[in-house]
Specification:
The protein is α/β, with parallel strands linked by helices. The protein is built from 7 helices and 5 strands, in the order βααβααβααββα. It starts with a strand and ends with a helix.
């Protein structure tokens, strides 16, 4: 199982230069070839951005999540968030990255899929969608 970071969805939703590799990876999840998880925190982050800048993209984003059968949403608790805040100091990352890392550790994922190089150098490897598609 992999943890999918917020920026993978943003790349896809806004049709940026690497959107196709994100779509391919998510399609592989839909087909059951890849198993993944995204935090509710990430979902809310995308919702907040789309709700302000691109309201027309919000409903398709949420429906896409719902239809991606190989992708589950991890509901972080306040206890998870407290633990992540404690991890911040240890791994020297901001809260968002620390929360993603904490959940990845808790769930025992094989990698964090992200374009964010702040995940480099941790004990869980960072991969990009193209690496999952290979």
């Amino acid at each position: 199982m992999i943890l999918v970071d917020t920026n993978v969805f943003m790349e896809l939703v806004f049709g940026r230069s690497r959107a196709i590799e994100c779509r391919v990876m998510l399609n592989r999840m839909s087909e059951g070839e890849v198993s993944g998880v995204v935090t509710r925190f990430s979902v809310h982050a995308v919702e907040a951005i789309l709700g302000g800048k691109a309201k027309d993209k919000l409903n398709p984003f949420l429906r896409g999540l719902e239809q991606t059968q190989g992708l589950s949403i991890y509901e972080t608790s306040t206890t998870d968030e407290i633990a992540a805040s404690m991890v911040m100091e240890k791994i020297k990352r901001d809260f968002d990255d620390s929360l993603q890392y904490y959940v990845a550790k808790k769930l025992g994922v094989e990698s964090i899929v992200s374009f964010d190089k702040d995940f480099d150098g941790l004990d869980i490897p960072r991969r990009e969608p193209k690496d999952i598609n290979a």
